[in-house]
């Protein structure tokens, strides 16, 4: 029997029908479009059975599937090694075209190259699109064509380009929905994927507190940030919409979204930052890497309330306020002299919004090893941070209920740790 000629739209970190560039172009295809999602076993196998991110992905796919059911279509969900899944799809369908949005992580780039090669051999045409960021790859570079490694000039160029190019299209594909493949693929339960529902949930995003964002965003007890990060990570909202909204309402908020783009292009141009120092001059630092100290940091039992509250918030909710992330990261690298990669890996395991580019970028910023990083001799004093940003102790009491019953001693004296950090960095930085 002849195979059915189809096109595919492959969902990855763009879990929405609305304003989705790759999907928009897919639906203009001459062939009916099968919307596809692949649970990649090589990632799933490394996760615990209860993972809030897998729960969130599953919920987001269920929403898309319900929308598709309303127009006589459905999501095709597969689980396996991505390359094997594609080999099977090629065997089952006459795959004419495959559309997807680009992912800039080194692992994803490699995977996509392998899949495109396979599809090419099969004479299927592949198309990839920019959807995850407003400006990608080489769109914002210095006048000599090299990538920016300092945020402020990057941001200035970004803003210049943004305002030059307005308005930017919204990719509304609703009038093309008739071109979805008519199907009733079975939608698997979370258990069938091999997971159980997590009690930790991704919060909906909000702009309620944005009017005062520039004044209040640094105060964890005020809780005035947007909670957009997991939504941007999994693409349940469109970055274009968020950026247009920010540009109209709040310049400080916009500059945070530009930080996200900055770190994305750093990862794209300098993939070594995933595991290595951006500044190789810092490769000679003699980290202490004490396992017991690391455990105390992970469990929020360092004796520094700001650090402990942050780590407990992370462990219980999968989220930590940005100011506190900066404090705990600085504490790990400077006070405890544990290399940033350990902290980065712990955050990667726990954060709902874990995003390789932002996580590595911010960790290297805190360690002083990254581009445009905090200078190595700046060592946050966790107690001064507490006085400045949680003066009444509201945030720390929320996460450390025993605080008023007499809190333990700090595991290391601040003045001692500060001097030790500066001396160790100084001795280790290669001239
Ligand atoms: P808002 O203040 O409402 O900001 C809006 C959006 O701007 C965020 O959703 C995010 O997309 C972007 N943004 C804000 N600050 C930054 C920043 N410093 N770098 C890059 N983008 C930013 N963010 C992640 O999305 N994933 C991570 O894995 C991650 N790891 C981090 C690790 C450390 C050590 C530190 C210090 C920061 C990290 N951040 C990370 C950045 C920041 O803490 C979160 O983006 C923010 O707290 C998310 O909450 P929000 O959406 O309410 O933020």
UniProtKB/TrEMBL annotation:
The keyword Flavoprotein applies. Keywords: Chromophore, FAD, Flavoprotein, Lyase. GO terms for biological process: nucleobase-containing compound metabolic process; response to light stimulus; response to stress. It comes from the Bacteria. InterPro entries: Crypto/Photolyase_FAD-like_sf, Crypto/Photolyase_N_sf, Cryptochr/Photolyase_FAD-bd, Cryptochrome/DNA_photolyase_1, DNA_photolyase_1_CS_C, DNA_photolyase_N, Rossmann-like_a/b/a_fold. Its cofactor is FAD; (6R)-5,10-methylene-5,6,7,8-tetrahydrofolate. Residues 5-134 form the Photolyase/cryptochrome alpha/beta domain. The keyword Translocase does not apply. Signal peptide: none annotated. This is Deoxyribodipyrimidine photo-lyase. It comes from Flavobacterium sufflavum.
